[in-house]
Amino acid sequence: MYKTAIITGSGGLVGSEACKFFHSKGFNIIGIDNDKRAYFFGAAASTKWQVSQLQSTLSRYEHHNIDITDFAALDLLFSLHALSIEVIVHCAAQPSHDWAAKEPLTDFEVNATATLKLLECTRKYAPQAVFIFTSTNKVYGDNPNFLPLVELETRWEISPDHPFATEGIDESMSIENCTHSIFGVSKTAADLMVQEYGRYFGMHTISFRGGCLTGPSHSGAELHGFLAYLVKCAVEKKPYTVFGYKGKQVRDNIHSADLVVAFWEVFQNPPLPGTVYNMGGSRHSNISMLEAINWLENKLGWKVDFTIDENRARKGDHIWYISDVRKFKNDYPNWKYQYSIEDILNEMVSSCQLKTS
Questions:
Q1: What is the dihedral of CA 9, 13, 15, 16, to 10 degrees?
Q2: At residue 351, does pLDDT exceed 80?
Q3: For the domain 4-356, what is the CATH superfamily, name and number?
Q4: What pLDDT was estimated at residue 97?
Q5: Which residues contact 186 (CB under 8 A, 6 or more apart)?
Q6: pLDDT digits (tens, 9 = 90+) for 260-295
Q7: Per-domain boundaries in the chain
Q8: How remote is the C-alpha of 219 from its chain's centroid?
Q9: pTM score, two decimals?
Q10: Disulfide: which of 125, 141, 218, 259 matches 13 by Cβ 3.0-4.6 Å?
Q11: CB 247 within 8 A of CB 288
């Protein structure tokens, strides 16, 4: 009997990467994805193309067009594979600040309640399995914005004498007394429940609080996936709007392949139940909006058509965020980055050019 990996959001950026990786390690893959991303962001953000690719290239991939809020469907699926489930990689989500504010009930159902349902199915049918959750740095709300930030020519930075200056923001950052955004609250609720199922029930649950997760498989949209959507607009010579902060907001970017290798590390040797890791590009791979635009202009040989709209700055959004990943690296010293920010951008440009040629 093959061991089984259940992967939600299997057509998405991280989910599809996880499907390919765990398949290469000999797993049967149960992919769950009902293309909700197209509902969130329109047909251009659909993940159907990725699901078709997985079905045609992975011999042990089984797709299920299930809504993760449907407990009965999840319960049945888990019951059918109970004896072989070894890992659940939960990537499905509503990922946008702006969209969440339009439909808070849907956002909370998808991000928080569905996570609880997946945890309960795991506890019921595969309590010894490893449950990996793709959380977000938005659990810290806008607390990072109250750090001593310094405005430089192309980016915001943190004061060099602050403890976070060298490596970035670690897990000691508070999630309390801040504005999270509706999206941030739903993800925080899910993050806390993942921790609680680990600590209360003794399950192997892990939350990865990601920075910007990116790569060429990202179906970028204006409201989510800033680097993927920026590259798409730049390559196709379409206008791009930067939402506030003078375009100097900084994000650390981690390639989905590097993240999935981190998943593999915790699967092989699970940490304490309910462990949380900050995971992103860290000081190794980070960039501001203006710096990304400048890089693309130099790469492509033409000006990017962009405007900065200070009136559309996202409430609760981060001005500067770089992940301190030392906790994870200390626990898993064999894990190393394979992609720099330049590697990520070059790969995304090539992929976008191939799609438009």
A1: 110
A2: yes
A3: NAD(P)-binding Rossmann-like Domain (3.40.50.720)
A4: 86
A5: 94, 100, 107, 108, 110, 111, 112
A6: 999 999 999 999 999 999 999 999 999 999 999 999
A7: 4-356
A8: 12
A9: 0.95
A10: 218
A11: yes
